[in-house]
Amino acid sequence: MDKIARTPKDIGIALRSVRKAKNLTQGQLADRSGIWQRTISNIETDASGTKLDTIFSLCAALDLEIHIKPRSTSRPVDIEDAF
Asked: Which of 29, 64, 75, 82 is a Cys-bridge partner for 59, taking CB atoms 3.0 to 4.6 Å apart?
């Protein structure tokens, strides 16, 4: 399940999508990651100002990794429309 993220909001949307696909509540993810549930809620709606350490902690808890590569011509909404 690859997601394209070009903005903090895109990251939040991608993390929420993966969390839901794994049938986890925000509370369960909070327990796994050590991040407060309220922080997870804020990230899922708009990750602006979120520390990278927090994003990486959530990625680890969701068994995700970040790949940096040249920008494609796809837009994040193109990927969302495919599902």
From this structure: 64
